[in-house]
Write a structure and sequence with these properties.
The complex is a heterodimer of chains A (172) and B (64). Helix content of chain A is 75%, strand content 2%. Chain A is mostly helical and 172 residues long. Chain A has two domains: 31 residues; 140 residues, no CATH class. Chain A has a two-stranded antiparallel ribbon with strand order 1-2. Chain B is globular and about 30 Å long. Chain B has a single domain, classed as Orthogonal Bundle (434 Repressor (Amino-terminal Domain)). In chain B, helix 2 crosses helix 3. Chain B has 64 residues and is mainly α. The chains are: A mainly alpha (172), B mainly alpha (64). At the A-B interface, helix 2 of A face helix 3 of B.
């Protein structure tokens, strides 16, 4: 799918504005990602698993492209690999109780994940219905919303299951 | 190995895991992991816990 220069510039500006807002929230101390020593260590292990997942997925994607021919846009393939790595990183963090920083509220994080999942899956379904996800047998950039929505949904499910299990363990 | 001495010292001061965690600047899960013996804290965290509970390192963390 071809996009105009304006579309690409708009996308770039959107990303830059997003990064700017997040940086501002950190500067104003609205967002505070302080982890304790056990969490830092656990997150280090999670990064390691995420890193190897990313390398493996990129290799798999490269080989599949060589063997099967072009089956998806390069940026969509890259997003698939990134999503898989993020999923592994987040899941390991959640299981090791290192996903939330010291000042984060579990309910707020669950709400945010739910909203992000619903929004992305909604856009993904709309794109699917409009026939923009697969064009000429190739997975297009329009599939990225669905991929992100699915990824955040799985992270949410892992988080909720871990949260309920931990709550039950505390009650015993 | 479970750290029952830490648990009993905390309970003697009628502190919850969350209260001790807040006092030493870690998460409740970290205190839980130390008490269960799943995590070996750094000397820095050991000292912070000892100061908060009014105990020495030997009393809480020395294995006999």
């Amino acid at each position: 799918m071809e996009h105009s220069v304006g579309y690409m510039l708009g996308l770039l500006v959107g990303v830059l504005v997003g990064v700017g807002i997040i940086a501002l929230l950190f500067k104003l101390k609205v967002m505070d990602l302080t982890f304790d020593e056990r969490q830092e260590r656990a997150r280090g292990q999670a990064y390691k698993y995420g890193f190897w997942t990313l390398l493996s997925c990129l290799l798999l994607y490269g080989f599949s492209d060589m063997i099967l021919g072009r089956w998806c846009d390069v940026i969509t393939g890259a997003m698939l690999c990134v999503a898989a790595a993020l999923l592994v990183f987040a899941s390991v963090c959640i299981v090791k109780d290192a996903y939330l920083s010291l000042k984060e509220n579990p309910r707020a994080v669950m709400t945010l994940l739910t909203v992000v999942s619903i929004l992305n899956l909604g856009i993904g379904i709309m794109n699917w219905k409009n026939g923009r996800v697969v064009e000429n047998g190739i997975l297009t950039f329009a599939a990225v919303n669905g991929i992100c929505g699915l990824m955040t949904l799985v992270i949410l499910v892992v988080y909720v299951v871990n949260y309920l299990l931990a709550k039950r363990e505390d009650g015993e | 190995m479970k750290n029952l001495r830490l648990k009993s010292a905390r309970a003697a001061l009628d502190m919850s895991q969350q209260q001790l965690a807040d006092a030493v600047g870690v998460s409740r899960q970290t205190i839980n992991a130390i008490e269960k013996g799943d995590y070996n804290p750094t000397i820095k965290l050991c000292l912070a816990i000892c100061k908060t509970l009014g105990k020495t390192l030997d009393e809480l963390f020395w294995e006999e």
